[in-house]
Predict the 3D structure of the following.
Amino acid sequence: MNIILPPAYDNESAHHQVKQLMEQKKNLSIRVDDTPCAWISNSDMSRLKYMLNTASWNWIINYLETGNPDDFKVFPLQEESLPDFQTTVLKALVDKKHKIYRIPFLRETQPYINLIAVFKFGKIYFRIRLTDPIVEYLNSNNI
């Protein structure tokens, strides 16, 4: 009896696919989670999983702002511990005065807050656990 294991996840291939979308100047929809991972979609494709490190996150942000697909010094196989990733990058975007909007919700029914950061070449979607500190932070920044 042979045991067949699923293939290991290939972040290098995901990186090349994301770069190809960038080179085509595609408008990207990116959902982030705390893994840290980006789920990238556009009009032609849905939910490509792309594991992030600091360099790859900065590459994505640069593309969303400028449309430049240059990935110099981005190593997609380099793993990095990025605790509380969503909240950290959301606060960094707020501090840089990016356009961020809260998606309306009913507080009694939602344990999460949904936000969208809007850029020239795409959007980033956040789904962050609803806590008093995050609500206070967003309110203090008029979000």
